[in-house]
Design a protein that fits this description.
Largest sheet: 4 strands, antiparallel
Structural class: mainly beta
Order of helices and strands: HEEEEEEEE
Radius of gyration: 22 Å
Oligomer: single chain
Helix content: 10-25%
Number of helices: 1
Strand order of the largest sheet: 2-1-3-6
Number of strands: 8
Protein name: YtkA-like domain-containing protein
CATH topology: Immunoglobulin-like
Mean pLDDT: 86
Strand content: 35-45%
Keywords: Signal
Shape: globular
């Protein structure tokens, strides 16, 4: 009886031991926000250094895994202030994990950018 119990336990454990483990990667995001200055020149800010009520010309989102690899061709959804359900714009990141858009400046407030690819996702808020 002891041998049959050992065989039963081994038949349960062997598949668990040989199942490949999935590796998890964190997803990092940053925004490069171009602003037109009063003299006409362009200045670039991040989502944390952007002054309020500036004339934003475009926002480039860059997405990378914790390994440094770009989230190439990941899906992106951009939500305008006041609507966290219906995306204002959707798209696909390029091969370098980047996506550029020009927000509607008539809609001031928190813009939320959400990205996902192969089970990995993250979001970033940009306050305009």
């Amino acid at each position: 009886m002891k041998n049959s119990l050992k065989i039963s336990l081994l038949s349960l454990l062997i598949p668990l031991m040989i199942t490949p483990k999935a590796s998890a990667h964190e997803v990092g995001m940053r925004a490069a926000i171009q602003v037109r200055a009063s003299n006409g020149s362009l200045i670039t800010y991040s989502e944390t250094t952007l002054p309020r009520n500036v004339q934003v010309t475009n926002i480039t989102i860059t997405v990378r895994y914790s390994t440094g690899e770009a989230m190439a061709h990941g899906r992106i959804k951009i939500f305008a202030p006041g609507d966290s359900v219906n995306p204002w714009k959707t798209g696909v990141l390029n091969a370098q994990g980047q996506y550029t858009f020009s927000p509607n400046l008539a809609r001031r407030g928190r813009w939320t950018v959400y990205v996902e690819s192969e089970g990995h996702s993250n979001f970033l808020n940009v306050l305009l």
